[in-house]
Write a structure and sequence with these properties.
With 295 residues, the protein is an alpha+beta fold. It has nine helices and eight strands. InterPro entries: Kinase-like_dom_sf, Prot_kinase_dom, Ser/Thr_Kinases-Pseudokinases.
Length: 295
Amino acid sequence: MGAAPPAEAVTALEHLLGPVTCNLLSDRRGSRAWKAIGLRGTAALKANNPEAAPGRDKATEMAQEDRHLLALTDAGALSPEYRVDAGAWECGRWLAVRWIDGTPLWNALALARGPEGDRPSVRPWLLGIARTWAEQLERLHAAGWAHADVQPTNTLVTGDGRAAIFDFALSCGPEVTGRLPYRGALIHTTAPEVADAILSTPEDTHVQVRPAADIWGFGASLFWCWTGHRPVPYAADAPLTDKFRAVADGKRLQFDDARPWSFPVFEEIVTACMAPAPDKRPTAADLVAIIEETQ
């Protein structure tokens, strides 16, 4: 059963979707998420947890994500159907977006991680996931935005083998004032230049993430979920600064030490995305063209 969603959110969603049933999906890191099932559609609903330990201001972050969704929709980078509704409740903020029926990237690639994944049908499927993921990043980047949190838990794979990205709370757009300072996301998929900027600036300084950093995160996520190994080796219990330093210094696990089976075309794409210098990485548009040529 779990925690109940904000009554204000339920009222708003029932106006749009009819009577809804809300099933708790997660309760961690200061926020809760539910699957809200209505007669006229399904939404993913999240709200800050007022009982959470002090840390990131999830209510403010949720309000920021809503502003990002509106701006990205206006810029044509997101479908107008993605954002369902948002608002305040007595203990903070809530946000609802269109439900995406899919499997988290890590789980979706489970078969491909083992030797049994070396089969003809898997190759075009992996490339199709990469291409559709790059297409969404291309739209964001063309609008002057970076997702800034490209990672497996923010990427779903639908039943037809397409990637779908979500969670735009940390995204970086043309406007850098009036927002929470960006100070990193998941370390495993943080680009070296972002890690270096985080280490070399005060904690309250905003680090503007560029599209090239999304490309590094894209490559790192594919490396991680296909090989089963984090792309940057460091001890799990190492201090946070040491982990960021390993990323900033360009330490990387090589495919020779990690690949579950040989897939040269895929490996070349991932390796190009994880080039240490941002200007040496392909753009999202380049990736779409490269992958289309191989399919």
